[in-house]
C-alpha cells in the first residue's frame, strides 16, 4: 500500500465526557475521501480505537476500497480504551461492561449522529473488534439489537459466558456477523488464562448457525495478532459496504 492516496486520511479527534464512565473517552473519527456534510454515511464503531487505526490500518484500507474498489464510503469511529481496564469493560461479565455498553448505546451513538451525517438506521451501523473487542461488539448487538445488527469479530474471545448467552437466545436471524479465526490460535494467553480460541470459535459458530445468524465464517492459517487481522479486514469491510 505505497500509494499516497491511501495514506492521506482525514481523522478528527474528539474527547467525549461521559456521565456513565469515570473518565472522558477519546475518539478518533475517520472521514472518507470526498466527505460531504450534505451526504449521509454508514458508521463503523471500532473497539481498541488506537490499535484499530495504527495496527489494523483501517483508515488506509477504507481509502483503498473506496478509491479503487467502489466500496461505499463510511465514517469510522475508533473508541479508545485504557488497557488496564479493557477486560473489565469488554468482557460481558466484567465489572465495567454494563456501564461501557450503555455508554456506547446512549452517549456515543447520539454524540456521533448529532455531529456527523450518519445514517440513523440500524442497518447502517457496524461494530468491529479484535479478541475481547470482538466479544464486546457481539454482546453490544445482543443487548441493543435496535441499534446494532452488523458485527465484525476478529478472533473473538467467545468464552463460556458468550456461549451461555447464545444458548439463552432464540432466533438471531436479524444479526449479520463476519467471524474470523486463525488455525494457529490454539493457545492464546489472556488475563484470564490460556484458551483454545480456535475451538471456542468453532463452538460459537455452531451456536450462531443454530440461531440462524447471517454468518460469514472465515477460518484460515493465522495467529492472534494484528498482522493476521489487518490482512483480512478489507474483506470484512466489503461484506458490509461492498
UniProtKB/TrEMBL annotation:
Q: Per UniProt, which keywords does this protein have?
A: Hydrolase
**Record's InterPro entries?**
AB_hydrolase_fold, Esterase-like, Mycobacterial_A85_antigen
Which Pfam families does the protein's record reference?
A: Esterase
Gene Ontology terms for molecular function: hydrolase activity
Q: Which SUPFAM superfamilies match?
A: alpha/beta-Hydrolases (SSF53474)
UniProt keyword Ribonucleoprotein present: no
Q: Does the keyword Hydrolase apply?
A: yes
Q: Which Gene3D superfamilies match?
A: alpha/beta hydrolase (3.40.50.1820)
Protein's name in the database:
Alpha/beta hydrolase
Q: Which organism encodes this protein?
A: Paenibacillus thermoaerophilus
Amino acid at each position: 500500500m505505497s500509494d499516497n492516496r491511501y495514506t492521506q486520511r482525514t481523522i478528527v479527534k474528539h474527547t467525549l465526557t461521559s456521565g456513565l464512565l469515570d473518565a472522558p473517552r477519546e475518539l478518533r473519527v475517520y472521514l472518507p475521501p470526498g466527505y460531504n456534510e450534505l451526504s449521509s454515511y454508514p458508521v463503523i464503531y471500532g473497539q481498541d480505537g488506537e490499535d484499530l487505526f495504527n495496527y489494523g490500518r483501517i483508515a488506509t484500507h477504507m481509502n483503498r476500497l473506496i478509491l479503487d474498489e467502489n466500496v461505499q464510503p463510511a465514517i469510522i469511529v475508533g473508541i479508545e480504551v485504557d488497557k488496564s481496564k479493557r477486560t473489565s469493560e469488554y468482557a460481558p461479565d466484567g465489572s465495567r461492561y454494563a456501564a461501557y455498553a450503555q455508554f456506547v448505546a446512549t452517549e456515543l451513538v447520539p454524540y456521533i449522529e448529532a455531529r456527523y451525517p450518519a445514517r440513523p438506521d440500524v442497518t447502517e451501523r457496524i461494530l468491529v473488534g479484535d479478541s475481547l473487542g470482538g466479544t464486546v461488539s457481539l454482546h453490544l448487538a445482543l443487548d441493543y439489537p435496535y441499534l446494532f445488527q452488523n458485527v465484525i469479530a476478529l478472533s473473538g474471545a467467545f468464552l463460556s459466558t458468550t456461549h451461555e448467552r447464545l444458548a439463552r437466545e432464540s432466533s438471531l436471524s436479524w444479526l449479520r456477523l463476519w467471524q474470523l479465526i486463525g488455525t494457529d490460535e490454539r493457545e492464546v494467553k489472556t488475563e484470564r488464562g490460556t484458551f483454545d480460541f480456535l475451538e471456542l470459535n468453532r463452538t460459537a459458530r455452531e451456536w450462531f448457525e443454530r440461531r440462524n445468524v447471517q454468518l460469514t465464517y472465515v477460518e484460515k492459517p493465522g495467529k492472534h495478532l494484528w498482522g493476521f487481522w489487518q490482512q483480512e479486514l478489507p474483506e470484512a469491510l466489503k461484506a458490509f459496504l461492498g
